[in-house]
Amino acid sequence: MSPPTQSLNLSVPPRIYCAGGDVEGEVLLDFRQLQQENIQQVHVKFRGSVHTYVFPLSNYEDETILVRSSLDLWMPGAAYPPPGTDILRLPFRFRIPENVPPSFHYRSWDKSACVLYELVVVGVRPGTFQFNRRLRIPRAVVPKDAFGARLRQNIGAVGWRKGERTERMRKGLWGEYSTAHVELLYPDIPALPLFTDIPFIINVTTTTAPLTRAQADALPENKPIFPPPPAIHSEINFRLMRITRIRATRFGAENAEDVAYFLGANTIPSKLAVETDLPPKEWVVVQSSGGGEEKGVWVQRARFQTSVTLSVPPTFLCPTIECLYALDLKVPFPGLGNDVRIDIPVTIVSGIDAPSSRISPSMPQVDAPPEPQAYWDANGRDWRNLDEKD
């Protein structure tokens, strides 16, 4: 492993980069430290690769090279710092190939899948037992997405797409069935872009088993009527799931995990902006009194509206990794097996067509597990000192 160095520094804007675009910055050489560390040559590299591993089926890590570019920046006598300073600034620029997968990271004890991009500055030190000096900075890359950028601009002007589910349920083992109908509404667009507010509406409508008017009037006012719709948004679980399919040599593996929480579990309700509408229950007659005692049902409704911002790797497919997403909504009801669940596969796109500076920790507006929150700050990844031989 290369020892740390004070002679080399790297100045690169904190951006998310687009495939097909440029990564540029400056290498800063401290000439005083350069001489003390006996550095005789400096070059900078841009590296990109895909790594997959499946244990115990495969004992080897698959690696696919995406980009390997190098520039020789300096050697003794080539350039000197301006008068009055010890710092020499050397600009560089690399082109990111088009159609490469986005930065991605998944790791568990028995499998891993990573798409990694990095800049490496190398200070060459000739001589036996003279280790080269290295400075590495990972970079986040996403596909260039002009179509998704247009979706971001028009997301508030489209209609709604709907996922829905109706379940029959009863509180115990006996009795007539009630029903619960749940709808999840989201923008009617073919893909969900990153880094923009995406509105969601959750409608819950419940209908009791048929009751006589006398039975309906006898229900306690201070107790919920089965099946009760959620009264507050924290009772609903709404999340984004990621399905990762990995291939290493001849073997494959699959993993499903939560990557963002919108409502309910693992969120802080006080930090969520949710509009809630709980209209009064409505009595609907289903049998008039002309043929006997009047019967009807109580219809109860709840509506929750919120917006979320996605900050995850876009959906992608490459020879050894497939990354898919699904919205998962669960509305719980009393009784065994009465929860209503909706799963909707969604495609997520980058939504940017030029380098973006949206990389600050405050960017995501949903609560999420540690990995997706840190995804755009790629410095926390296990790079395992790739290319130490260079």
UniProtKB/TrEMBL annotation:
Compositionally biased intervals (Basic and acidic residues): 379-390
Region called Disordered, residue ranges: 358-390
Highest rank taxon of the organism: Eukaryota
Species per Swiss-Prot/TrEMBL record: Polyporus arcularius HHB13444
GO process terms (BP): protein transport
InterPro entries referenced in this protein's UniProt entry, alphabetically: Arrestin-like_C, Arrestin_domain-protein
Entries under Gene3D superfamilies matching the protein: 2.60.40.640
Name of the featured protein: Arrestin-like N-terminal domain-containing protein
GO CC terms of this entry: cytoplasm
